[in-house]
Specification:
4 copies of one chain form a homotetramer. Chain A is α/β, with parallel strands linked by helices and 305 residues long. Chain A folds into 2 domains: 139 residues, Rossmann fold (3-Layer(aba) Sandwich), CATH 3.40.50; 137 residues, Sandwich (Tumour Suppressor Smad4). Chain A has 7 helices and 18 strands. In chain A, the strands form 2 sheets. In chain A, strands 1, 2, 3, 4, 5, 6, 7, 9, 10, 15 and 18 form an 11-stranded mixed β-sheet that branches. The longest helix of chain A has 16 residues. The relative contact order of chain A is 0.14. At the B-C interface, strand 9, strand 10, strand 12, strand 14 and helix 7 of B face strand 9, strand 10, strand 12, strand 14 and helix 7 of C. Strand 12 of chain A pairs parallel with strand 14 of chain D, so a sheet runs across the interface.
C-alpha cells in the first residue's frame, strides 16, 4: 500500500474529506449494517475509502483498501468509528497522533463520544462534509512506569489512567506528587486520573466532578480511600503527576488506560502521567451540544419552562 | 489431644475463663512479645492455655497445648487474638460457630475490633477475668454461590461479602432480590454487603453509612455504579439477599469475604447472603465505648465543652 | 358533633371501614375532582364520610360531616389523603396518635407515600375495602427542645427532624449523644435525623442511605460538615438522640419537622429526639412493592432479563 | 487625607513595600496584640502605616493614618490582614480592585488564606519585604441579580456565590445556562458556584472537588439535589453562568457571597455570575506550599517514606 499525501485542502468547506477511514466493531450485526451503508454513502460522495483491517474481510468484494489504524491516521482526512465509546477510545488512542478528524456512529450503550444516530446519520454526515460542523480538540494522557529510574512501560489514555491493586478490594499505599511537589499520600484501592473526556466515565462513578471538555485540567479521584478526608482534586493538565508506590507494598499493582490497556506495577515503582502532545480532533454535527449529551446520557434535568 | 468439656460455670464472675486460646500473627515481633507475655500472665491466673498451631512452634518449650482454631473454639472459654483486624476477622469466621468469648490485643493498624493495648493490657484483662466487662454479640454473614440450582461454594464473613468483577475497574451486571422480591438491577464494579461490624471498613470507604453494632441490619453499597441514582440501602439482617449475575456477562467474577476468602462466580450464577446462625461474642473492657473507638479511629469530632 | 365509638369490627375482611375521613389539598383542582369522586364512591359503599374542615366548604351541599383532623382520627376507621407527600406527612403527624388506617391518592410530585393513582383508584380501593391489602406500620419521631432543663417546645415528625442554623449556609457547633453517651461533636450547617420513611426524602439528598421501612432504625446525616471525616450513621430507633448546642454559638437555630413545623433553638439549648409511641398505619394495595416505588420514583435499575 | 501616588518601584526586591495597610478583627485580644506588634515592626522598617478605620481607634496614640479599606487599596503597596479567613475574604472583596499585595496573619480557625503564624511572623515578613516570596493571583467572582431585565443588585465573592432558598431545607427550582446555552435544571436547596480559592470551603463540605489555585475554572455544586443524578460540574472561569429562577416558585430566595453579603432574589429573577476583572494578589512566604496547607488544614495524608 502506498502512503498518499494528505488532502492539502482541509480548510475548504465543501467535500474537504477526500479520504475516509472506516473503523468498527468486528462481527457485530448492527455495526456491520452501518458500515455497509457507509461504504455506499462514501462512494457516492466520491471518497476514497480505507477500511480498518479487522473488519475489512467483511467487505472484501467492495471497493475499499484494507489498512491498519496507523495507516488510516496517516492517509485519511476523516475517520468514522462505528461502535460504542470503547471502540472510539481504542481508535482515538492511536489516531490522536495524526492530523485526522474523527466522528462516531453510536452502536454501543451510552455513546458519549459517538454522536451520530446509526438509523439516521446521512443528514448529519452531509452537514459535516459541507463543513457545517463543530471541531473539538480533546487532549489525551500518557503514562510511564519507571523501575529504579528505568522506563519499563508506557501507554496512552483518552478517558483515564487508573492505578490500582491487581486484586479487587485490596488496599495499596502510594504518594502523589504534582510537578515534583509532594501533594498527598493515600491508602486506598487506587487512584483515577481522568481527562475532561473521561470525567463522565469511571471518574464520575467514583464520585469525581464533571469537567467540561474545554478545560485544560485533570481530576484525581481516590478509589475507596481509607482516610475519610480524601477528596477528588482537579489540577492543571500541564502538571506532571507522579505516583510513587511504597516499597513496603508486598503485592503487585496495575496501571490501566481506558479500562483496556494494562501495565504491571511493582512495589517501589514510579508512575508519571502527563499530557500527550497528540490531540483527538472530534468533529461534531453543527447542532451538537455538550450539555444536551449530559442530560440525555446522565439523566440531568430538562428545561423547566 | 483430648477434647475436654467446656467450663460449665461460665456465669460465675470470678476466674470464669479456665481454658484460654491464644491466636496471633505468626512471625511478627510485636505480636510474639505480647503472646509470650500473655502466656506468663495466663499461667499466673492458673489457666490452661491452648495455642493456635501456626504460632505454637515459637512457644514449644512452654507449658501450652498446640491446637487448631476449631479445637480452641470447642475447648476454650476465651480466645485472645493478638494482631490487627485482619487476624481477628480470620479467627472470628471460625470461632463464631462455637460458644466462646473473644477479645483482641491490637498489633495492627486500625484495631476497630482489637480493644486491648499491647503495652498495657494487664489491668484490662484482670477486669475481664473478674467479669468487669461488656459482652457484645456480632452477627456474621454466610454466602452461597449456586450454579444452575446446585450449591457450588460457600463461606462466611464478619465484615462484608463483596461481589465484584475479577478484574479491577471492570463493570458487571446483576440483579438484587431481597427476600425473593426483585429490588434493583445494577451495572457497576460490584456490590458490598456489610454487617454493622463491617460498616466501618470497606463499606465506609465506598460511601456507606456507619451502622451501630447493635443494629440487626446489613448495608448494600454499590461500587462505582454506572447509574448515578444508585445509592446505599440498609435492609433487615433477617432478609435473604440474592444476587443474580446476568448470563450476558462474558467474564468471570468473584465473591470475597472480608477481603480474604475468594469464591469464583460465573455468568448466570446466583449468590445468596444471609445471617449465619453463629455469633461472634466479643468481650470488651468495662469502659469500652463504641463512639470513642469511632472518634479515635476515624477522626470524628471530640467533645466541645 | 357527637364522638361515635370506633367500628368494633375492624378485623372483618369485608367492608371493615364504615367511617372514612377525607383529607386533601384545599383549592387544588385535581385534588378537588378526586375528592368529589371519592365522596360518591364512599357513599355507594355505604360509608359515613367525615371531611377535614379546610376542604369541607367545597362539599357543603353533599352528605358529609366536617371535622378536624383529630376528630377524623378518633372516629374514622380509614383516612384517605388526597395530595402529595407533604399533605400526607401533615395528616400523619396528627393521625399517628389514633387507631386509624391511612391511604393516599397521589396528587403531588413524587408520591412515595400516596400509592393510589387519582385516575384509577377504584379497583385498588375496592381491594382495600375487601381486606386485600398490606398494612404497614411506620414509626414517627418526637422532638423536644429544652432550655436550662425546662421543656420549651416539642413536636412530631414522620420523615425527619432537622437541626440547622436559622440562616442558610451558616455553620453551627453542637454535640450529639446517643442514649446519654457522647457520640460526636460537629461543625456543620446542621444535622438530619430521619426515619426509614424519611430516608428517601431530605436525608437521601444529603447523602444518607435508604432504610427499608421495616427497619427500627434512624439515620443521622450531617449537613455540609466542616470535618471531612463526618459520615452518616444509622442507630437503633429505640435510642434517645440528644443534641447539645454549644453555648458559644452567638446565633439562633431551628429544629424543623418534615420541613414544615419550625421550633426555635438558642445557644445552650438541648434537643432530644426519640420514637413517638404512635404509629402511622399505612394501608397499601395488595400488589404494593416498596422496591418498585423506589425504582419508579428514584430511577433505580429495572429488571435485566 | 491626601491620596499619595503608589510606590512606583514595586519590582525592586528590597523594601519595595513603603506604604503598608493594617486590617484586623476589631476587639479581638489576639488580633490586637499582633496588630500592635506589627505597628512597631513596620515603623522599624521605615514604612508609612495606614490602619483600617474600624480598628484605628485602638491605636490612636500611635503614628499611623486611619483609612477606609478603599484608601488602603489606593495608597498602600501591601495590606496585612490579621484575623481568620472571614476577615481576609471581606478585605479581599474590596482590595481585589486595586493594585496591592495582600498577606494574612492567622488569628482565626482554619486559616487557608492567612499564612503567617501570629507568634512568629517576623522572619517570614522580613523575607516578604526582601522579595523572597511567592506572589499568587486569585480571581474573584461578580454576581448580578436581574429582575425583568433590570439590574437589581450586585456584589463580589472571593470564595463562592451561593443561590439558595431564604429558608433552610426548602427546595427551589431553577435553570442553569453556561454562556447562554441551557445546561441543566435543578430542584434542590440551591447551588454553590465556587472559585478555586473557595473550593476548599463550603463547596468542599457539599461534596465538590478541590481545584488547585492556578486553575481558571469554577465549580458548580448542587445543594441537597432532589434528582439523584445531579453532580458537581467544573466549567471554564471565562464562562458566564446564568441561573433563571422559575416564576412558579412562590417563595423568596437569596444569593450570598462568601456567606456574608446577602442579595434578595425573587421568582422569575435572573442571576449572572462571571469573573471580575480584579485580582486578589496574595503574597506568600518563600516556602509556601499549597498542598502542605491542604494536608495541615484538611488532614490529608503525610509523606509515607
Amino acid at each position: 500500500m502506498v502512503i498518499l499525501p494528505k488532502n492539502s485542502c482541509r480548510t475548504c468547506t465543501l467535500t474537504n474529506y477526500q479520504t475516509v477511514g472506516l473503523i468498527g466493531k468486528p462481527e457485530h450485526a448492527g455495526a456491520n449494517a452501518t458500515l455497509s451503508s457507509l461504504l455506499v454513502y462514501l462512494h457516492k460522495k466520491g471518497c476514497r475509502v480505507l477500511v480498518e483491517e479487522t473488519i475489512a474481510k467483511q467487505f472484501q468484494d467492495k471497493d475499499m483498501t484494507p489498512c491498519t489504524l496507523e495507516e488510516i491516521g496517516q492517509q485519511a482526512d476523516l475517520a468514522i468509528v462505528v461502535g460504542g465509546d470503547g471502540k472510539m477510545l481504542g481508535a482515538a488512542r492511536v489516531l490522536a497522533e495524526f492530523d485526522i478528524d474523527v466522528v462516531g456512529v453510536n452502536r454501543g450503550n451510552l455513546g458519549f463520544l459517538t454522536d451520530l444516530d446509526p438509523e439516521d446519520y446521512e443528514t448529519q454526515l452531509d452537514g459535516i462534509f459541507e463543513g457545517k460542523s463543530q471541531l473539538e480538540e480533546r487532549f489525551i494522557l500518557e503514562v510511564e512506569v519507571y523501575q529504579g529510574g528505568e522506563l519499563k512501560s508506557s501507554n496512552k489514555a483518552v478517558n483515564e489512567v487508573v492505578l490500582h491493586h491487581s486484586k479487587v478490594a485490596h488496599m495499596m499505599e502510594f504518594e502523589v506528587y504534582i510537578d515534583d511537589i509532594f501533594a498527598f499520600s493515600q491508602r486506598s484501592d487506587g487512584l483515577i486520573v481522568a481527562t475532561p473526556t473521561g470525567s463522565t466515565a469511571y471518574s464520575l462513578s467514583g464520585g469525581g466532578a464533571i469537567l467540561t471538555p474545554n478545560l485544560d485540567a485533570v481530576t484525581l479521584v481516590p478509589m475507596f480511600p481509607h482516610t475519610l478526608s480524601a477528596r477528588p482534586i482537579v489540577v492543571d493538565a500541564s502538571s506532571v503527576i507522579t505516583m510513587k508506590i511504597s516499597p513496603e507494598n508486598a503485592d503487585s499493582f496495575q496501571v490501566s488506560c481506558d479500562s483496556h490497556v494494562v501495565l504491571t506495577v511493582l512495589a517501589g515503582d514510579k508512575i508519571t502521567i502527563r499530557k500527550n502532545p497528540g490531540k483527538l480532533s472530534l468533529v461534531h454535527p453543527e447542532d451538537y451540544n455538550y450539555f444536551k449529551v449530559l442530560r440525555s446520557k446522565l439523566g440531568w434535568g430538562s428545561k423547566l419552562y
